Structure formats: structure tokens, C-alpha cells
Amino acid sequence: MTRKSGTATDRRLAFEREAMPHLDAVYSTALRLARNPDDANDLTQETILRAYRYFDQFASGTNCRAWMLTILYNIFRNAWRRGEREQPAATPEEFDAEIEAHSRAADQSRINPEALLLNRTAGRRIELALNALPAEFREALILVDVQELNYQEVATVLNAPLGTIKSRVSRGRALMRKALCRLDQARGKTGT
Amino acid sequence: MDCREYISEYLAGHADGELAPLARRAADEHVAGCPICRAQLIEERALKAMVRQGAAIVKAPADLKSRIRGALDEADRRAAAPWTARLIEFLAPVRALGSRISEPLVWAPASLAAAIAAAIWIALAVPQHDSVATIPPVPEFELAIDRFKQFQHEFVPNVPAEAYENETGAVYAWVINRDPVHRVADEADSDAFNDLARSYRSANLPDDLFDFMQAGYMIAGGRVDRLADGRPIAYTLYKGMAGQIVSLCFHDPTMAAPIGAVNWLGLRSFYEYKGYSICLSFYPTGHFISILITRMPVMQLMRDVAAADPSGISR
């Protein structure tokens, strides 16, 4: 059931109540996609404005966060379609190389106290492992584990079949385990 | 169900609570009798929790929140203003076309054109505000006006790099259509697009190009220069029977859309500014802006931009 148009004030209030609480979720995802704060700001703003413009089409009772993330991904896909961007590791083979690079970076962090401190935090460890994942696995894991969407919602957001999402989550976790294990091994070798 | 099947087919869904009732029961039964898979399930849930904690949601910066609220307010303000007059204005060229047509057989296409125009308008129709409000001076628009005037007198393309030199030493890539010898743009417009796009990208600029063919404008050439502070800037000149359109694209992290747009189309806003029609676009990444400037009426520019990029969202 889509939202009935009320007065402009009602519409704005409803948007503030239902959509704006998800601003941080949108921003976090934008930050991961764009990989720099300036671009993330622009992506977030465009997503919110687009959501507001089409808020009448949001079906009450469904997951507003999933709806907004769908808009975000659509904008991202369209905006990046013609652009040239640095892409994260795209295949499992490249993933191995990426993890190897992160491991080397962890080795080198011994000589940089600040990097050492950062690398010691659990969050940093997870970030390193996540960033090494091929994009499709990382996206699926973040949407399920961090944004707490169900598989069907993730399939809608990423415009992919449900079976593909199931497979990406399963394979993504396996790759995460592997990445964390390799990072820990690298730290073990260097005593960090 | 054996362990291999459980781990490959059920484990992730089990940890995420995504199994259908029958599958859930089968998975529960297997785990109850298998300590190895039970440990795997515990570890899967621990990993899930670790990702949730380690990649926590980041709070949006306060200035972004403020910027967004301002943009929402602006959208509300536009929505509250009258718009019917704009529809009439938008359809004026089509009505004028109809009044010039005397052959009955061409009325059908004319009606179709009117219907398409109306449909485009409806698709674009974020209600607009009256455009009579004076826009305070905008340095970027002033730059665009300056270049528009300059290029009316002379425009010398300088990209792509694999060019030739003319007798005065100016470097040409492919050349304005009036050039008597080199009419490359006539020969392969798509090649021209690709060459220019590549050249702009190699200068670390977006491939800010529009296909205005339908609107009757051809690309006359492209240039890459530097602004006084060293920032690269791409200029593209489009020429048609009705005049010229100039586009400027450069990095401008400080610019915000000026108040006073007569309409919006995705990330594009349209202005009437000092007798010019301007389309300002923000690239969602990299803080690049694109300015299209022309003397044609702003509603016509909107139609042409919509036709050149029907999605209206690709930038």
C-alpha cells in the first residue's frame, strides 16, 4: 500500500518520522560505496532528496531503510556507470592479493605507532578484512549483518536474485574468516 | 543432511534466521546431533556479531544533516508554488508548431509530439516556483557567461592530444564543422564523443558530454584548460542553427546550488541568469560541477537536456 498524499506539512512530518532516522544508515553505506567523505555526502544528499520526492511511492509497513538503500544503490550504479573508479578486489583471486597487501601493511605498521594503535583495534581488523572482500560479497555481508536487512530485502537493494544473495552471504563469510585468519597470522609473525 | 550439505547450504541462512520452517527444522535436528556443526553455527553467529560491531554505522556529519534539511526545505518551498503557467510555457513551442501546420496528415505527428512533450513535462514536473526572483551573483555563472561570449567569437579545440598543428601552431584535435578541410565531427560523431570523453578523463575530469543531436546541436569541439588556480576545466561547444550551447566542467567543492532555480531534474537545476539559461549539475562524486549555458529559453534547455539524458539522474 503506497502512502496517500496529505498536506505538504503532513508529508514532511511523515518523511521526518519514517525516513530521516535512516540517514546514518544511508550515510554509512554511501561512505563504503564512495570511499571518501565528500562523495559520500553528495550520494547521501541525493538519496534523501530522491526519497523525499518519491516518498508517496513508499509502501507503509515495509522496511523504509531497505527502500532508501535501494534508492542509494540505484543512484550509485547510475552515477558510476560511465565513470572510471578505483574498484575494490573483484574476484576471489584478487582477494588473495588484496589480503596479502593488507598483511604486508600490518607488518609495516610496527614502525608507525599510530598505525599500530589503529590496527590493534577490533574494528580496524574487521574493516581491513571487509575491504579486501570482492565488492559483491562485502555488500551482501554489510547489508545483512550491519544494516540488518533480510535476504529478500538485500536482493531488492542489490537488484540480484535471492539465490545469488544467499550464496554471496555464505561465501562472503567464508572469505571473511580466511581474511581474518591471514591478518592474524601476519600480526603473529610481527608480534603486533 | 550431512555436515557438508549443512555447511554449504544451510549454515549462513541458519545463523541469519532465513531458513524456511521445514529447512529450519532439518538444520536444527542436524546441529543437535552434530557437535562440529554446532560449533560452526556458534562461530558463524560470532562472526556476524563481529562484523556488526566492527563495521558499525557511522553518524552523518552535522553539516551534512543541515545541508539536507535545507534542501528539503527548498523542495517544500518549490512544491508550494504555482506551476500551471509553467506547463503552458513548456508546451508553447509545440502549440506554435501546430499553428504553422496546414497539412492534415501531419497533425497526427504534431499531436504525438504534443503528447510526448506533455509526458516529459509531467515526468519532470517537480512543481516549480516563479523564476522572477533575482539570483545573487554566482561566480561560476559569471565565468560561464564570460566563456560563452568568448567562444562566440573564437573556439579552438585542443583535445584529444593526438592532434595536428595548423599553420599558426595551434593544436587541433578534431575541428569545428566550418573548417574547410577537416570535418571529422561530421564523419563520426560517436568517435568524437569517445575521443573527447577519453581526453577529459585523462585530464582527471568527468566525461561531461551531452548528445544534443535530437535538439539540433552538434559538438563543435572540446578544450581542456586550467583555471587561474590551476584546476583543470573542460569546455565543450555545441553548435546548431539556433545558436550555441557551451558546457564547462571543473572541480568545485564549495559550490552549492544557488537559490532561485526555476526547476530541477535529478541532480540538475535550471536557472534564468542575466539573460542566459543555465543548467547546473553536480556530479555525485568528486565534487565536480557541470554548467551548460545558452541563450535559448530555459524551458527549451530543460527539454533538450531531458532528451540528451532521459534518466536525468546519471550525473
Q: Could you write a compact summary of the structure shown?
A:
The complex is a heterodimer of chains A (192) and B (315). Chain A is built from 10 helices and no strands.
Could you explain how this protein is built, in words?
The complex is a heterodimer of chains A (192) and B (315). By secondary structure, chain A is mostly helical. Chain A has two domains: 74 residues, RNA polymerase sigma factor, region 2, helix turn helix motif (Rna Polymerase Sigma Factor, Chain: A, Orthogonal Bundle); 99 residues, Winged helix-like DNA-binding domain superfamily/Winged helix DNA-binding domain (Arc Repressor Mutant, subunit A). Chain A is 74% helix and 0% strand. The longest helix of chain A has 29 residues. Chain A is elongated and about 60 Å long. In chain A, 43% of the residues are buried. In chain B, the strands form two sheets. Chain B has a seven-stranded antiparallel beta sheet with strand order 3-4-5-9-8-7-6, sandwiched between helices. In chain B, strands 1-2 form a two-stranded antiparallel ribbon. The radius of gyration of chain B is 28 Å and the shape is elongated. In chain B, helix 1 packs across helix 2, helix 1 runs parallel beside helix 3 and helix 5 packs antiparallel against helix 6. In chain B, a hairpin with a 2-residue loop joins strand 4 and strand 5. In chain B, 45% of the residues lie in helices and 17% in strands. Classes of the chains: A mainly alpha (192), B alpha+beta (315). At the A-B interface, helix 1, helix 2, helix 3, helix 4 and helix 7 of A face helix 1, helix 3 and helix 4 of B.
